[in-house]
């Protein structure tokens, strides 16, 4: 379970970080190197989820969506300096509960 969580976090940081670099390049007129680095990081993001042990692509990516939401709230807080409110935290917690149900609920096979 710990390996799965680490891979979800690494993928999330890669997706948000890569997207952020592209954002800086296109929206804030940073040098093209930001865009190139962001694009390469986004390629790495596409690879990381394939390292998950779960057999279903759809389930992995659906669960990752919940983790992404939590990481995006944290990124906004730490990088963009936008303090999350109660509803941001409650929404993020609901997403994590959903992820847990999707990935670790007992199934008949």
UniProtKB/TrEMBL annotation:
Predominant cellular place of this UniProt entry's protein: membrane
CC terms in the record's Gene Ontology section: plasma membrane
Subcellular location as annotated: Cell membrane; Endomembrane system
Keywords: Cell membrane, Membrane, Transmembrane, Transmembrane helix
Family: Belongs to the UPF0060 family.
InterPro entries reported for this sequence: EmrE-like, UPF0060
Membrane topology: Multi-pass membrane protein
Superkingdom classification of source: Bacteria
Transmembrane segments: 5-26, 32-48, 60-80, 86-105
HAMAP family: UPF0060 (MF_00010)
Protein name as annotated: YnfA family protein
Signal peptide span: none
Organism encoding this protein: Cohnella xylanilytica
